[in-house]
């Protein structure tokens, strides 16, 4: 792996990891099959627990850390994701592991501007409108600025959702509705959603609390890495999407360019945990972050997994030559 | 770890089985039950025979009784989603579904233009989510190329019909200029329902990334017309004839786009004049070569 370039801390954690593995296997045989947590080997139940704790700790400073670690480039990545989605008004989006709502807010902005343009075009095409008709169309614009588009932000972690709701209020995407639907089939219906087009749901990506065939687009941005059973999450994605629906996954991936890969490793293992300690006071969580990136399957393998879940026309687009990749698939 | 190994084995196994289009999921009896493809419908009535695709499937081909489209991943996959498992069904491929979506999208073009919105509306009429329009390029170029190739095939069929009639003796063979005029007119008439948005289409077809495909379609159409007109030249005439007809076609199309006369009479008159010019030009060229003694054939 990045053995030559991550001396110091990483090695320490790996040695600690060996110890953990011993303890883990002794303790965790009943708690599910072996999996990984960063460079450590743990049981599945333990992994879920640890990841929950990681995000509980980072929730407050999540956005600040994103900006500092990626030098603000993560905003561009998320913008590219929403542009690729190209949603039209009336789209129902579910943003899983959407935590602090980055994708959801971008989606709402995009849809709002598309809707405005649509209404303007309609006005322009109709010559000789009476004043009543013109004012009616303005009213329509005011009463339905999103064109019935909805986004549901689903996350497993309460702290992240809380941070997201606070941010939404602060930025003006008001009228939030909180729904707890932890078990499957305890369903959240679109009727529960509201005029702001935004809803927050507590739920597990491996077992979504939604009906079948419901959403137009399913996105998961920088979240699928933290899911313990990726195949289950992909199956759930397939289930909740309508026929013709689209699956989009934005995630850190494998850099093939050797020079860039070395620089990236250097930056990841030397700089990011330090930033984590300085800004958020939490070294271990950010160590976990960079390790989990290395453990995540590369582009082609993820593409195969998505195809296995039943998606067609699966494709990926590398951003920044592989640091981040967007995978897209359709339920046809 | 065991789960991952099992997963990768399953994937490898599935790829092998994908070639065996007939035997499906009898081997995989998943606990979650089968789920047929949401939108790819059975294409047992499909006449078209798609060319067989990659080599891994070639070896299984002889075992198939009936021709079926064999594109990559044309039916969803392995353990979690499978088919009914009752009998071997023909499912259409992704390509065919895309064609269906584009065909359905054509009726929304007068309203939305050649854009992703028209494609989204088309997908909605087929019962798919509007997000399916994401399969295509966002500038609508695939829609236009689909339309153009559809028109070209219609033209080919039309010309073939006419040729059959001539061969059976039921119709007279038309002189070349008449033939060319009728062919170009028939082809341009197909554009009339979309004439409002046609300038947009032409401009999109001229974008650099579309030029190879649009040029391809144009040249094959012109070639078709000359073929049915009975052109059997094997010398440089082959090129000049096609170049001239391409010029005639393109200029007539441009005239048509800003023609406001009833039923485009002005356009057809323009076309008549250009074809007559072309004929004159070729006979004039021949006369000149005769005079100057350059013509080898006496």
Number of helices of chain A: 11
Order of helices and strands of chain A: HEEHHHEHHEHEEEHEHHHEE
Strand % of chain A is: 15-25%
Q: In which order are the strands of the major sheet of chain A placed?
A: 5-6-4-3-7-8-10-9
Largest sheet of chain B: none
Give the structural class of chain B. mainly alpha
Number-wise, the strands of chain B total 0
* Distance between the first and last residues' Cα of chain A: 38 Å
Secondary-structure element series of chain B: HHHHHHHHHHH
**CA radius of gyration of chain B:** 25 Å
Largest pleated sheet of chain A: 8 strands, mixed
Greatest interface and its participating residue counts: A-B, 37 and 37 residues
Question: In terms of per-residue confidence, which ranges of chain A show pLDDT below 50 for 5 or more consecutive residues?
Answer: 1-18, 20-29, 176-186
From the helix content, strand content and strand pairing of chain A, which structural class follows? alpha/beta
C-alpha geometry of chain B:
elongated
Number of strands of chain A: 10
Percent strand of chain B: under 5%
| Mean of pLDDT of chain A | 82
Morphology of chain A: globular
Fold blueprint:
The complex is a heterodimer of chains A (332) and B (298).
Chain A: H1 9-28, E1 34-37, E2 40-43, H2 44-58, H3 62-70, H4 73-85, E3 92-96, H5 102-125, H6 131-143, E4 150-155, H7 158-171, E5 178-180, E6 198-202, E7 215-221, H8 230-240, E8 241-252, H9 258-280, H10 283-295, H11 299-308, E9 312-319, E10 324-330
Parallel strand pairs in A: 3-4, 3-7, 4-6, 5-6, 7-8
Antiparallel strand pairs in A: 1-2, 8-10, 9-10
Helix pairs in contact in A: 3-9, 4-5, 9-10
Chain B: H1 2-19, H2 55-58, H3 94-105, H4 109-112, H5 116-125, H6 141-167, H7 176-189, H8 198-205, H9 211-228, H10 237-257, H11 265-292
Helix pairs in contact in B: 3-5, 3-6, 6-9, 7-11, 9-10, 10-11
Biased composition (Basic and acidic residues) (chain B): 42-51
Main location (chain B): mitochondrion
InterPro entries (chain B): COQ9_C, COQ9_HTH, Ubiq_biosynth_COQ9
């Amino acid at each position: 792996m990045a053995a030559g370039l991550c001396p110091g801390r990483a090695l320490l954690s790996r040695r600690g990891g060996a110890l953990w593995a011993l303890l883990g296997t002794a303790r965790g045989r009943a708690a599910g099959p072996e999996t990984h947590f960063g460079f450590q080997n743990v049981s599945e139940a333990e992994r879920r627990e640890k990841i929950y704790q990681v995000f509980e700790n980072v929730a407050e400073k999540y956005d600040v850390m994103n900006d500092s670690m990626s030098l603000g480039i993560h905003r561009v990545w998320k913008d590219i994701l929403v542009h690729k989605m190209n949603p039209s008004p009336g789209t129902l989006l579910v943003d899983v592991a959407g935590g602090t709502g980055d994708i959801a807010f971008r989606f709402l902005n995009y849809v709002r501007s598309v809707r405005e343009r649509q209404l303007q075009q309609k006005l322009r095409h109709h010559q000789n409108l009476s004043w009543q008709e013109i004012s009616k169309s303005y009213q329509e614009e005011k009463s339905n600025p999103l064109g019935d588009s909805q986004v549901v932000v689903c996350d497993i972690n309460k702290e992240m959702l809380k941070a997201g709701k606070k941010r939404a209020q602060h930025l003006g995407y008001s009228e939030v509705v909180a729904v707890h639907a932890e078990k499957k089939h305890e369903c959240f219906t679109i009727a529960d959603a509201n005029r702001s087009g935004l809803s927050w749901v507590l739920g597990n990506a491996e077992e979504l609390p939604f009906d079948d065939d419901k959403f137009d687009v399913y996105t998961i941005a920088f979240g699928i890495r933290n899911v313990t059973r990726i195949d289950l999450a992909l199956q759930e994605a397939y289930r909740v999407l309508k026929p013709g629906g689209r699956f989009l996954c934005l995630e850190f991936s494998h850099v093939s360019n050797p020079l860039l890969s070395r620089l990236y490793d250097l930056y990841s293992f030397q700089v990011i945990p330090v930033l984590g300690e300085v800004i958020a006071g939490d070294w271990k969580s950010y160590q976990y972050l960079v390790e989990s990136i290395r453990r995540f399957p590369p582009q082609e393998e993820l593409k195969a997994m998505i195809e296995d879940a039943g998606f067609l026309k699966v494709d990926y687009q590398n951003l920044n030559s592989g640091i981040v990749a967007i995978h897209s698939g359709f339920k046809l | 770890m065991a789960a991952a190994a099992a997963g990768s084995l399953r994937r490898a196994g599935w790829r092998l089985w994908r070639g065996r289009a007939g035997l499906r999921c009898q081997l995989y009896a998943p606990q979650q039950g089968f789920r047929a493809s949401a939108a790819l419908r059975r294409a047992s009535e499909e006449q078209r025979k798609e060319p067989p695709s990659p080599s891994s499937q070639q070896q299984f081909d002889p075992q198939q009784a009936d021709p079926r489209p064999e594109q990559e991943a044309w039916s969803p996959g392995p353990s979690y989603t499978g088919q009914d498992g009752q009998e071997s069904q023909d499912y259409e491929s992704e390509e065919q579904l895309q064609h269906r979506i584009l065909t359905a999208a054509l009726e929304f073009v007068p309203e939305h233009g050649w854009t992703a919105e028209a494609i989204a509306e088309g997908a909605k009429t087929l019962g798919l989510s509007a997000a399916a329009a994401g399969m295509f390029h966002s500038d609508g170029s695939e829609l236009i190329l689909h339309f153009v190739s559809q028109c070209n095939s219609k033209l080919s069929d039309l010309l073939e019909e006419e040729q059959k009639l001539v061969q059976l003796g039921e119709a007279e063979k038309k002189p070349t200029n008449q033939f060319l005029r009728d062919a170009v007119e028939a082809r341009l008439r197909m554009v009339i329902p979309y004439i409002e948005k046609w300038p947009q289409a032409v401009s999109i077809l001229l974008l650099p990334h579309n030029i190879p495909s649009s040029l391809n379609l144009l040249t094959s159409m012109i070639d078709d017309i000359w073929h049915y007109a009975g052109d059997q030249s094997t010398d440089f005439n082959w090129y000049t004839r096609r170049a001239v007809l391409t010029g005639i076609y393109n200029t007539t199309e441009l005239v048509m786009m800003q023609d406001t006369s009833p039923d485009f009479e002005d356009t057809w008159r323009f076309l008549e004049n250009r074809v007559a010019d072309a004929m004159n030009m070729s006979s004039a060229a021949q006369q000149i070569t005769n005079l100057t003694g350059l013509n080898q054939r006496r």
